[in-house]
Amino acid sequence: MDSAMKKLNQVVIKLLSFMAIGLFLTACSNNLPTLPGASVHPSLTANPADYKYLIGPGDELNIFVWRNPEISGTFIVRPDGMVSTSLVEDLEVSGKTPTELARLIESELAEFIRDPIVTVTVEGFIGPFSEQVRVIGEAFEPQAINYREDMTLLDVMIQVGGLTEYADGDNARLVRVVSGEQRSYKVLVGKLIQDGEIEANVDVLPGDIIIIPEAWF
């Protein structure tokens, strides 16, 4: 009996200790300063109707210099948006199309090679954050998606696997940067993918954020 009481007292003491620690952490967190809101970064795509893929950190670039295999090769874009090639170091590539980058490399290589001809192809597409479509909340697989030409809400939801059973799809929000300001729009994800109301489908643009809340039962 004494042994059982001793164990019970130990459990109670541990629970009280955890509660005290929790209260202490809560009090400390309430006194911490609040960080300013995240910087607003509009999409680098000026006209979605003329969408072209833009290079971003993490992309794998195949840079081919005609008649110069020794300086051709595959290069990874660094987290700072720069890339270092065999002859040119710290070349800023993020936000450029492959064609724009090819012309830039040609101008840089002209110092070393006569009339260089460069071709750039991208493998392992990632792109800049400003061009990705991000889905958070009660999607089956929340993730950042590479924007594709003429992408719609339905395309995005297919890629994230639809809604979870706890999702309040018809109270979802789409956040978009318009004229340098973040604006929120209501999107009826539930009606679209659960009820099949195709009228609820809308165009998605580079940089959009889709937030799907949890339902209150």
Automatic annotation (TrEMBL):
Organism annotation: Agarivorans albus MKT 106
UniProt keyword terms in alphabetical order: Signal
InterPro entries: PEP-CTERM_polysacc_export (IPR017477), Poly_export (IPR049712), Poly_export_N (IPR003715), Soluble_ligand-bd (IPR019554)
Signal peptide: none
Record carries keyword Nucleus: no
Domain Polysaccharide export protein N-terminal stretches: 48-122
Entry annotated with the keyword Protein biosynthesis: no
Single GO term (MF): polysaccharide transmembrane transporter activity
UniProt name for this protein: Polysaccharide export protein
Annotated Pfam families: Poly_export, SLBB
Domain (Soluble ligand binding) ranges: 133-181
